[in-house]
Amino acid sequence: MFLIVGQGNPGLQYARTKHNVGFMVLDRLASPKDYRLKGNAFVAEMAVGEEKGWLMKPATFYNATGEAVAPFARFYKIPPERILVIHDEMDLPPGRLRFKAGGGNAGNYGLESISKHLGSTAFHRLRIGIGKPPSPEEGATWVLSGFRPELLPVMERVLDAAAQLARDWVIEPPEKIQQKYNGLNFAPGAPQAQ
């Protein structure tokens, strides 16, 4: 049993914002009509080969993600190491994604919420680059705004790769996922890892 969590905010006004890239990836793994409300989250079932699990879009706001994740994981007896959280990352430029098994939360309040409510930082993370705002004071406005039109093709490729990473993560070891995906760079003109 596994759980793939997309971080984001519920509501149409947030649907295409940078903070909702986690939800965007999940929409590539199941149709939006497949999700149903269960507890504090919209969930859909997913299978990869013989492995069965869940996709989750928390119905809580981004910074309270743990309130949805932890009760669900406990109910279905899903250990932290079988949870993948997909989220936006200002420290990565658009076009990049980075997988990590466990570790710190780097100031991401949603990850901190999950760590606190799960009592563990051993869950896995998929960081999707959104780039830095023009100034640190504009961080909140930045994550709640959409991508510039010229970046949309780049983000489509990133989101497709992230969805494939999530499928592979279900059945492949973390080391293989890192080797396969962490070198990818979809920014225009960027050299591709071999």
Automatic annotation (TrEMBL):
<feature type="binding site">
    <location>
        <position position="63"/>
    </location>
    <ligand>
        <name>tRNA</name>
    </ligand>
</feature>
<dbReference type="InterPro" id="IPR018171">
    <property type="entry name" value="Pept_tRNA_hydro_CS"/>
</dbReference>
<dbReference type="InterPro" id="IPR001328">
    <property type="entry name" value="Pept_tRNA_hydro"/>
</dbReference>
<dbReference type="GO" id="GO:0000049">
    <property type="term" value="F:tRNA binding"/>
</dbReference>
<comment type="subunit">
    <text>Monomer.</text>
</comment>
<dbReference type="GO" id="GO:0005737">
    <property type="term" value="C:cytoplasm"/>
</dbReference>
<feature type="site" description="Discriminates between blocked and unblocked aminoacyl-tRNA">
    <location>
        <position position="9"/>
    </location>
</feature>
<keyword id="KW-0694">RNA-binding</keyword>
<comment type="similarity">
    <text>Belongs to the PTH family.</text>
</comment>
<keyword id="KW-0378">Hydrolase</keyword>
<protein>
    <recommendedName>
        <fullName>Peptidyl-tRNA hydrolase</fullName>
        <ecNumber>3.1.1.29</ecNumber>
    </recommendedName>
</protein>
<dbReference type="GO" id="GO:0072344">
    <property type="term" value="P:rescue of stalled ribosome"/>
</dbReference>
<comment type="function">
    <text>Catalyzes the release of premature peptidyl moieties from peptidyl-tRNA molecules trapped in stalled 50S ribosomal subunits, and thus maintains levels of free tRNAs and 50S ribosomes.</text>
</comment>
<feature type="site" description="Stabilizes the basic form of H active site to accept a proton">
    <location>
        <position position="88"/>
    </location>
</feature>
<dbReference type="GO" id="GO:0006515">
    <property type="term" value="P:protein quality control for misfolded or incompletely synthesized proteins"/>
</dbReference>
<dbReference type="Pfam" id="PF01195">
    <property type="entry name" value="Pept_tRNA_hydro"/>
</dbReference>
<feature type="binding site">
    <location>
        <position position="14"/>
    </location>
    <ligand>
        <name>tRNA</name>
    </ligand>
</feature>
<comment type="function">
    <text>Hydrolyzes ribosome-free peptidyl-tRNAs (with 1 or more amino acids incorporated), which drop off the ribosome during protein synthesis, or as a result of ribosome stalling.</text>
</comment>
<keyword id="KW-0820">tRNA-binding</keyword>
<feature type="active site" description="Proton acceptor">
    <location>
        <position position="19"/>
    </location>
</feature>
<dbReference type="InterPro" id="IPR036416">
    <property type="entry name" value="Pept_tRNA_hydro_sf"/>
</dbReference>
<dbReference type="GO" id="GO:0004045">
    <property type="term" value="F:peptidyl-tRNA hydrolase activity"/>
</dbReference>
<keyword id="KW-0963">Cytoplasm</keyword>
<feature type="binding site">
    <location>
        <position position="61"/>
    </location>
    <ligand>
        <name>tRNA</name>
    </ligand>
</feature>
